[in-house]
Design a protein that fits this description.
- This protein is an all-alpha fold.
- Helices cover 78% and strands 0% of the residues.
- The protein is built from eight helices and no strands.
- It starts with 11 loop residues before the first helix and ends with a helix.
- 16% of the residues are buried.
């Protein structure tokens, strides 16, 4: 009778490196972000991400240098998330501070006609965002785009809508 084979978890390779790599990874992150709590969170995310990566079929060789690379990516992800949040807050704040009298004069029937005259990508973005009231990340999901690309698309779509609306409004007057 043969004994069942127990497969060793590939993430155990991290265990032997953990004690020496932890201060290196934490120090790397702390020196770049300057916030102990954030450095601790990102260090945890780094090691959790490393465990997941080690369990993949074609896992990379585990080393302190590789863990620093994972930490670098976690820090960059954090900065991107923070920038998106701040950009969103700036946009909300700007929308609150600046009332656009043009919005009050919008004729609903003319607006529908103008929307229908725009390209499909502009129609989709404007409808999802302003008719359905979805936040930009959800609009991005529906359109299969990044949040940044969707924000740029919305800027172009609003400009196209405004131009077409004003042209049509001028012809009808």
């Amino acid at each position: 009778m043969t004994e069942p084979r127990v497969h060793r978890d590939p993430a155990f390779a991290l265990l032997s490196l953990y004690e020496t790599a932890l201060p290196e990874v934490y120090g790397y992150l702390l020196s770049r972000c300057g916030d102990r709590t954030l450095a601790e969170e990102l260090t945890s995310e780094t090691f959790l991400g490393a465990v997941r990566a080690c369990r993949k079929e074609y896992a990379p060789a585990v080393s302190t240098g590789w863990l620093i690379g994972v930490a670098r990516h976690k820090l960059a992800d954090h900065w991107r998330r923070k920038e998106r949040e701040e950009r969103g807050l700036r946009l909300v704040h700007e929308e609150e501070d600046h009332t656009d009298p043009w919005d009050e004069r919008l004729d609903a029937l003319l607006a529908r006609e103008v929307l229908a005259s725009l390209g499909a990508h502009h129609q989709a973005a404007l409808t999802l965002r302003y008719v359905d009231g979805l936040p930009v990340p959800e609009v991005a999901d529906h359109l299969g785009r990044t949040v940044h690309a969707t924000e740029a698309l919305l800027v172009r779509a609003r400009a196209a809508f405004r131009r077409a609306y004003q042209e049509k409004e001028g012809r009808d007057a």
